[in-house]
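Residues pack. One example:


***
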Amino acid sequence: MAGSADRLLVKVTALDRPRLVALILSALAGTAAGLLLPGALAAAVDAVVAGRPSLPEVSWLIVLGVTEIAVGLIGGILTARMTAYATAWLRRQLTDRCLALGTRSAFADGDAISRLTGDCTGAGLVASVVVQLGSTTLISGGSIVLLALMDWRLAFVFLGSIPFGLMLARTHLKNTADDVLTYQEVSGELAARMVDAVAGLRTIAASGTADREAERVLRPLPKLSLAGRGMWRTQARMVWRSGLLLPAVELAVLAAAGFGVMEGRLTVGQVLAALGYVALGMGLITQIPLLTTLSRARSCARRINEVLDSPVPEPGDLGVVPGMGTLELRGVTVEGALREVDLIVRGGRFTAVVGRSGSGKSALVNVLGGLLTPDEGTAVLDGRPLEKLRPYELRAVVGFAFERPALLGATIGDAVGYGSWAGEAAVRGACRSAQVDDLIVRLPDGYRTPLAETPLSGGEAQRIGLARAIAHAPRVLILDDATASLDTVTEAAVEAAIEATLPGRTRVVVTHRAATASRADTVVWLDGGRVRAVGPHGQLWGDPAYQAVFTEGEQ
């Protein structure tokens, strides 16, 4: 995993080659200016002390200073642009893979959000961090060479500190890596729990379990705190050790330079230059926090790769054949939801799916509609396995509406027509069938009202989601508790309108209402992930266990 993460970082670094080259060139210019600055300072000071005209030396000193400032500004702009580009690219790759994984994704919503936001940003910084580390290494090496050219004794004294600096850097990087990765992982877990809690706010408030839910969400916090404290302790050790190392080296070099002045080998200006070279040479030590950033970028890349390396099923290449919309499940098993389910849903019929909470109803209809690929077994539409059909053709003939639909688009009209070729007339017809047209036409701009400015109740959002499914005019319409927020009268009116708008279509409806099941041609009764019975509602009603399915929410 570490190898693939490093390969991803190399790819990210090379994404924007023109800016990368410009950043490297600006860093080299800054490195050259930084290395020349102490020598220019020495020449200017010696000229002033000797009483010689110092204008050329001072002018050169000013040019180098201005160059270093300008290069720093240019580098900052390039870094921001490259980081933004790399982050956007990573988010696109991650989003595409999450969408391709679909309902089979092993990553919780909050964890995926954490990877899309924090991890992509952390990995996107890698190019600037690498360039900064390379520049710092060149400055450190160059300063040692210039120090040796001035007086080899000074370079010898300075080199005595190198082993201590390398040991400090190695220890810091080693101690930080595990804490950084743990911090990222626990942050993702916290985000996942928080998203779950926000999605269930009304349920939490109604059940009076806010304190217990808060405890559940914050349960990983001690582990996060432990990792955070570990990083800060490592950082603190690095800061005080490097803080002691730099003045100690400067003092040793200054003492050696003092002997050089007394012996006439060095001038006052060269002593100042020597101190400047020591500060530059120790830059690699003072920039150790960059190693923490690099370690974080690697852990971020590792978490991103966990998603990118997740296998995506190969899309089918067969077309949809004409048919009535007959669905069949053969030995279907979904881990934790369904077990060895065999089922035939007759085309053109109204089929209700009922069962207690957790019996596998949503998993069943997701498999029937091709949103979920079973771990074992096969789902078939009009004689062809769903996994072998071209995705865009499958989505054209199977429509879904959900209990909590995600409405997408700029306007209400866009939300209803989303994902289909439906025109304005078809959109309005679908809304009339879903009993929501009266609501929309009363909005300030009707169907052109911005979705973000339209407050919707749960029932209204459900009806718009239902209208979206109807607008597709699918061969098979699957409603996963999509009318749960409607009253029984409105629900019956919606069903009648759908029957009139889409006659002869297959309808599969997950419901908790006996009245809805009674209007269905066939009822599929699920119990513990298995099909307990299939038949008309009136025939099943004689079983007290079947009756208990509809009284579960009332108990």
Remarks:
- The first strand starts at residue 327 and ends at 334.
- The mean pLDDT is 85.
